[in-house]
Amino acid sequence: MYLEIITPEKKVFEGEVRIIQLPGSLGSFEIMNNHAPIISTLMEGTIKIVDNSNAETFFEISGGVVESTDNKIIVLVEAG
User: Count of domains in the chain?
Assistant: First the structure.
């Protein structure tokens, strides 16, 4: 899947990932390959990214939104 994480100041992540875990407004959730289309608000918390080599990256956010369609994920956030 292709992921972009964008703050008002800059793009903080761009690349292929295997899994992304997000702090949704109704609880934490994951998006994996071929996930159904989704749009969700995000709460303050941690985004966890697992890339194709199983390396993990974390981003602290104070809120935002995510949209995922056709294995492309765009996350618009306020950095934490």
Answer: 1
- Environment class of 19 (CB within 10 Å of its CB; exposed 0-12, middle 13-18, buried 19+): middle
Average pLDDT (40-44) is 97
Residue 80 reports pLDDT greater than 70: no
Residues spanned by the domain of 40: 2-79
The structure's pTM equals 0.92
SS3 annotation, the chain: CEEEEECCCCEEEEEECCEEEEEECCEEEEEECCCCCEEEEECCEEEEEECCCCCEEEEEEEEEEEEEECCEEEEEEEEC
CATH code of the domain covering residue 75: 2.60.15.10
